[in-house]
Specification:
Elements: E1 8-13, H1 16-26, E2 30-34, E3 38-43, E4 46-52, E5 63-66, E6 69-72, E7 75-80, H2 82-94, E8 99-106, E9 114-120, E10 126-132
């Protein structure tokens, strides 16, 4: 069986050491190669690269209304196992990371039932952590179906 592809995401940060503290320290991501201008992180098996930019060069984030919340249009994150979601929430709370959108369950009792929350890293990049009760529903189109 072929190894599953991994994604690579490069994104801007305004302070590399603050990024290291958040991604390695709070989230527990191992670091890889780095230079004075970037750091590689193992983000749940994927390559995340924080690139240093001047604060005025960091992009502003627009948002969209989703499920009664203003969700940042530009965000990334991880789909965790259902049993991994609450420990991640606890880890974020223990590190005093403020929630942009507090943890809650969407589509409760329906096919796409998922726990979700949003935070910002020290540079203002939005991250979403989510977990599906049934991971097979990750790409389901009809989330109005009740289980």
């Amino acid at each position: 069986m072929a190894e599953r592809p991994r994604f690579h995401l490069a994104f801007p940060v305004t302070d590399l050491e603050a990024a290291r503290g958040f991604y390695a320290g709070v989230l527990g991501c191992a670091t890889g190669r780095e230079s004075a201008n970037w750091i590689d992180f193992d983000f749940f098996g994927h390559q995340l690269v924080a690139h240093l930019v001047a604060p005025e060069a960091h992009p502003a984030a627009a948002s969209n209304a989703v499920d009664g919340h203003e969700v940042p249009a530009s965000h990334f994150g991880a789909v965790l196992g259902w049993d991994e979601f609450q420990p991640m929430v606890a880890r974020l709370r223990a590190a005093d990371v403020p929630f942009l959108i507090d943890p809650y369950v969407r589509f409760e009792g329906r096919l796409g039932e998922q726990a979700t929350c949003f935070v910002r890293d020290p540079s203002g990049n939005a991250l979403e952590f989510k977990a599906f009760r049934d991971i097979d529903a990750l790409f389901a189109k009809d989330i109005d179906v009740y289980r």
